Amino acid sequence: MAPAGFPSDAFGESFPVSLASVEAARLALADYLAGFAVSDRARNRIEVVLEEVVSNVVRHGQGADRIGLRAACADGVLRLLCEDNGPAFDPLAAAEPAPYASLAEAAIGGQGIPLINRLTQSACYERSGPINRLELTFALT
Amino acid sequence: MSIAITELSGVTKAALSGRLDTASVDKLEISFIAGIVPKGQNTIVDLSQVSFIASLGIRMLLSGARALSRQNATMVLYGASDAIMDIIETTALSAIIPVVPGEADALAAVAA
């Protein structure tokens, strides 16, 4: 049964936790989005955030073995639900890195979660039993 | 994803092509850094054939620029598409690494 707000014909797929799933998830979601009017800018932003979310689970979700994705487009908005069964991890609770002040002092790395925050219209995390649920929305234009 | 390193009158040129995603950067970051940093020269990076960049790609560019800066060399990026520029600006990378439109602009920037 689809989660609340996701029609029965919405996109839904599950992927193993492996690096190959980052690309597999991208291609699967791109195939779904091909049926909707999505601007190039929005499509790129969706792909970047999906890359960050899935690769975070692959690289840091120790013990996770499945990544679930659901997506639905309505009223010019993509709603994307990402679930994994790894250890509880709220990516939205991470502190924003300090703005780059100089090349010498810039932190190397740490831009993945800020990209999730900045490129989405909204982002919400909850731990539901053994599952991390990250729900994101994007404007399609 | 591929990388081509060439020399332009004392300036290192790194031409990247393809997707700077997690899988590609894992494989090619070492080649990128090894191709530009030991030379210790001003470096221009051609992004015109890069179709996608995420956080690990940003990290790779920042690592290279910082290593060069420690040798008093400068890195300049050029040729970024609107999609690539959107991500570069969202991370504010462009606040610390110059990004210019074309190769001539990049060569002028490193010579300045």
Summarize the structure.
Chain A has helices at 20-33, 40-60, 112-119; strands at 11-16, 66-74, 77-84, 122-128, 131-139. By secondary structure, chain A is α+β, with helices and mostly antiparallel strands.
What are the salient characteristics of this protein?
heterodimer, A: 141 residues, alpha+beta, Heat Shock Protein 90, five-stranded antiparallel sheet, B: 112 residues, alpha/beta, Transcription Regulator spoIIAA, five-stranded mixed sheet, 5 strands, 43% helix
CATH topology description of chain A: Heat Shock Protein 90
Helix content of chain B: 40-55%
Question: What percent of residues of chain B are in strands?
Answer: 25-35%
Assign the CATH class of chain A. Answer: Alpha Beta
Mean pLDDT of chain A: 93
Rg of chain B is: 12 Å
Count of helices of chain A?
Answer: 3
Largest sheet of chain B: 5 strands, mixed
Q: Which CATH-level-2 architecture of chain A?
A: 2-Layer Sandwich
Task: Please give the largest β-sheet of chain A.
Answer: 5 strands, antiparallel
Shape of chain B: globular
Radius of gyration of chain A: 15 Å
Order of helices and strands of chain A: EHHEEHEE
Number of self-contained structural domains of chain B: 1
Show unreliable segments of chain B.
none
Gross CATH architecture of chain B: 2-Layer Sandwich
Distance between the termini of chain B: 31 Å
Fold topology:
The complex is a heterodimer of chains A (141) and B (112).
Chain A: E1 11-16, H1 20-33, H2 40-60, E2 66-74, E3 77-84, H3 112-119, E4 122-128, E5 131-139
Antiparallel strand pairs in A: 1-2, 2-3, 3-5, 4-5
Helix pairs in contact in A: 1-2, 2-3
Chain B: E1 2-8, E2 11-20, H1 22-36, E3 43-53, H2 55-69, E4 75-78, H3 82-90, E5 99-100, H4 103-111
Parallel strand pairs in B: 2-3, 3-4, 4-5
Antiparallel strand pairs in B: 1-2
Helix pairs in contact in B: 1-2
